[in-house]
Amino acid sequence: MFLPFVISLLQSFETRIDHFNTMDKRNFTLYYSVLDQSFFSESILIYIDEFFPIDQTEKNIPVVIKQIAHQTNSTIITIQHRYFHQSKIFNNLSIESLQYNTINQRLADIAALSRHLHKTQNITRSIIVGSGFGGSLAAWFRLKYPQYIDGAWVSSPSQLVSKFFFDDANKNIQEKMDKISPKCAQITGNIIEYIENKLIENKQNYESIIKKNEIENFTKNANLNKFSSDFIKDIDYIEFNNQRNDKITKNEKIDNFDIRKIFGLNENMKKESVMFIISEMLVYLSLSNSPRRSSKNINIEKYCSEISTWSEKVDDNTLFQFAKLFNQTFNDFNINQTELDPYASDSDNPPTKFLQNQRIMLHLRCSQLGGFRIADNDTKIRSKMVNSKYFRNMCDDLFKIKIKNDESIFNRLFGQLSYGGSSMWLSYSSQDITKQLLSNVKSDMSREFYVNEIESESYSDELYIGQIFEHLNGHSSNNFLNLNGHSMNVSNSYPEDLIRLKNDSVDVISRWLNLSFDDHCGKWGTRILNHCKCNESYSGSDCNQYVVSKNQFRTMSAITMLVPTLLVILVAIFAWCFILEDSDSTHFVI
Fold this sequence. Notes:
By secondary structure, the chain is of the alpha/beta class. The protein has 18 helices and 16 strands. It has two domains: 259 residues, 3-Layer(aba) Sandwich (Rossmann fold); 244 residues, no CATH class. Helix 4 links the parallel strand 5 and strand 6. Helix 5 packs across helix 6, helix 6 runs antiparallel to helix 9 and helix 6 packs across helix 10. The longest helix is centred in the C-terminal third of the chain and has 40 residues. The N terminus is likely disordered.
């Protein structure tokens, strides 16, 4: 489908720093952008991204969203979240400054934006759309502020159900690895355990076939904070395309060489943080099929195909081979692996944008969301050092927040385990690492609440809204998806059920957006479950009939009773005065 040229217009408005304290009059500037060839129409799609700059968000809006906007003549709005990028509140990220970094404040920001748009534009219909954490915000907003929004389209909401410490992600990733190769998870677990032992022993001497001066020159000249894909490529014994059985020469030792260096990490990094970052590599590899987070050269399939050829007995040669894969992964994702350390954000003014964003999100997780991925007892792919104690200490050290097991309190505030909202289309992939948290959320047609789990061989928080539909529209050529467990390439074969699901979702969202063009509900009421809840003084199925409200009726009744009463009183007073005056005059004459 041809899409017209889209104009992007950055705008802003003033809103409260604290929406829930009437005594606090301070404001900050919240930025949003308008994407539409005709600037504003009567219906809008509010697209909630995660925490990317607005210009990056605009580039990542799925094609299908733009198509829906075009065919329904709707305007796309994106918002820049408070604290992030242009929408800064304070000049620092101190603990005191972050006290307004809450879910409720963010939802109130979206409500303020909705009020601003309705006040300045002729808006009759609005749908909120989001994926990942943005999807969670979209779902919560529909639940908390139904008067501002007519429906929500939510893809893989990462935090719709909160759980502070989450170990199911390891099982999901291991299932994926086992499908590729039964040896992949086992060898990975052995390597993780080997690195743990190295860190615990604090062993400084590593045997290698490389001469001492070669390593010293390499580590001296290498940019260890941002490895290039050339990392260790000159080390003779590492060859991934043909396996070698080179033995380590015992008389060649390297003194004072910290294991952290070969992984590009700071020498003073906590050993728990080292294991956290190494374990996170598998999460990024699982994200590699996401349109936004794509890796050029490596993904979970390539990783498992390579590592499965290695021996299950781990030695230092294996360690260096694994380090190369590790550094290649983060280089391809354009991520400085050292910055993934939560403690790297332990500053009121983190030096990089990545660390600034990480500090904001860590604070939100420590204070409300949770979602910390920890080790479990059934798998070995995440280090046992990455446990609840590590994250509890981190939250206390960075923000003076002591985590309590209170996710049930959070869930009660945001819809319980069974989401209670209406007019929402929810979807997630069978490979989502938070899939278990959504298993209790079921469809309810009576309130137009649709839940769709899509069978997929890849994970992506963008999978449903973005990736599937863009494959169906021919924007990609190599992704395997299925709805009934049948493997197929969607670029060459589109199963009827997948196409039907795509069409159904587009029809539902378009219907929600188009309702305002057929009735007056958007102007004089709020549509809920296809019924219009009218504002005061309006009635009818479309709220297009003006009626007398209860207050108006009471006022009119009071007036109709009061006016005759007053008239009687006035007549009585007049008569009394006249008779009294006449009586006095007669007495004087007599």
